[in-house]
Amino acid sequence: MLQDQITQYTAEINSFDTTSAEELEQFRIRFLGTKGIIKDIFDEFKAVSPEEKRTLGKVLNEFKQLAEAKYQSLNESIADSGIKTEDSKLDMTLPGEGFEVGARHPLALVRREIIEIFNKLGFSVAEGPEIEDDWHNFSALNFPEEHPARDMQDTFFIQKGGEKGDIALRTHTSSVQVRMMEAGQPPFRALMPGRVYRNEAISARAHCFFHQVEGLYVDENVSFADLKQTLFYFVQELYGEGTKVRFRPSYFPFTEPSAEMDISCTICKGAGCQMCKYSGWVEILGCGMVDPNVLENCGIDSKKYSGFAFGMGIERIANLKFEIKDLRLFSENDVRFLKQYKTAII
Ligand code: PHE
Predict the structure, then answer these.
(1) Is 328 exposed, middle or buried (0-12, 13-18, 19+ CB in 10 A)?
(2) Which residues form the Aminoacyl-transfer RNA synthetases class-II family profile domain (predicted)?
(3) Which of the listed residues 13, 47, 81 is the one where a domain comes to its end?
(4) Are residues 144 and 293 in the same domain?
(5) 311: CA distance to ligand 1 center in Å?
(6) What is the pLDDT of residues 45-95, one digit of tens each?
(7) Which residues pair with 209 in a beta bridge?
(8) Cβ of 47: how many Cβ atoms within 10 Å?
């Protein structure tokens, strides 16, 4: 009886193997514990006949030694492996793992700089949807229906002739000016930064989307002189004192009179280079006095109030700041390009 049990447990002990300290502890309790198998067997041994005791005594002692030896050797190998993995994980002499710190996109940097300059003049920031209806993108801004002025901005239409007229991706953020004026009464002094879309073939100089910052100032007695002074201040802040400006007459349906503003080339300082096509001047924005029709369309008394508006492409402003010659770089997300503006983080 006892002999059979010992044979069975011996097989169990011999085949037992583990790398887990927890399992080994279970093993110890089962065989070597104070209420364990070996203790039981020794208790039973007391009851056997003296003849049996002689042979069984030896077997029992060997069995006990086997269990103890197994426990000890497994215990050592578990302890060893613990030290080894710790060792190989922790080599204090290795150099630390470097990790890349992200950087702001050059367009985000320029947008922020523009906003900060106008903040000093009391301009806040307004935003609006990129998917617009005909009214906010065109009609309220004095683009008559079927008028060729609509072709100035090749539009991506989403839906033709819906309940609210055509639905399109906004072609400029002037739509946000309309929304702002509709929602309240003057004075308004705000910037409208955002992404705009035009159906143009993608090249180094054109893209089907780009970013704008437009501005609007409406109050009593706002004049063209205010417009000029505001934009002059902006350019001095952005490109440095001494940067010259000039205004050329232009046409926009929503401003009257309208102008385009050039600055003296920031790259060659007027001497002539590729950027300014050897003219010494580069165009950076469109502007003008808000057409009274637009004010009236938005529920504002055009006899009492007047205002100016302007709009610029952030990509263009960034090109002049960073001398980036290919527009496509801005949207390709090539880290080799983006990395170069890390130092520009303010
Ligand atoms: N909305 C014009 C454009 O996208 C820019 C502009 C804004 C011009 C305000 C004049 C006044 O081209």
Answers:
(1) middle
(2) 110-340
(3) 81
(4) yes
(5) 4
(6) 888 888 888 888 888 899 999 999 999 999 988 887 765 555 566 778 888
(7) 197
(8) 9
Q: What is the CATH number of the domain that holds 241?
A: 3.30.930.10
Annotated binding-site ranges:
256
More confident residue, 289 or 49: 289
Domain of 54 in residue numbering reads as 2-81
Per-residue confidence band for 96, with pLDDT thresholds at 50, 70 and 90:
confident
Ligand 1 atom with the shortest distance to the CA of 141: 1
- Ligand 1 pocket residues where CB is under 6 Å: 172, 174, 214, 252, 255, 286-288, 309-311
In the numeric block, which tokens belong to residue 16?
């037992």
Residue 130 and residue 70 share a domain:
no
Are both 331 and 241 inside the same structural domain? yes
**pTM, full prediction:** 0.72
Domain presence at residue 254: yes
42 and 127 in a common domain? no
For residue 313, being part of any structural domain is answered with yes
CA distance 103 to 114: 18
Whether 77 and 117 share a structural domain:
no
Would residue 51 count as lying in a domain? yes
Q: Which residue among 174, 178, 254 is best mutated to probe the pocket of ligand 1, counting the most ligand atoms within 8 A of its Cβ?
A: 174
Residue nearest to atom 10 of ligand 1 (CA): 287
Res 346 pLDDT > 50:
no
Q: Using the mean position of ligand 1's atoms as its centre, give its distance from the Cα of residue 216 in Å.
A: 10
> Which of ligand 1's atoms lies nearest the C-alpha of 171?
4
How many other β-carbons are positioned within 10 Å of the β-carbon of residue 126?
19
The count of structural domains within the chain is: 2
| Ligand 1 atom with least separation from CA of 172 | 4
State the burial class of residue 215 (Cβ atoms within 10 Å of its Cβ: 0-12, 13-18, 19+). buried
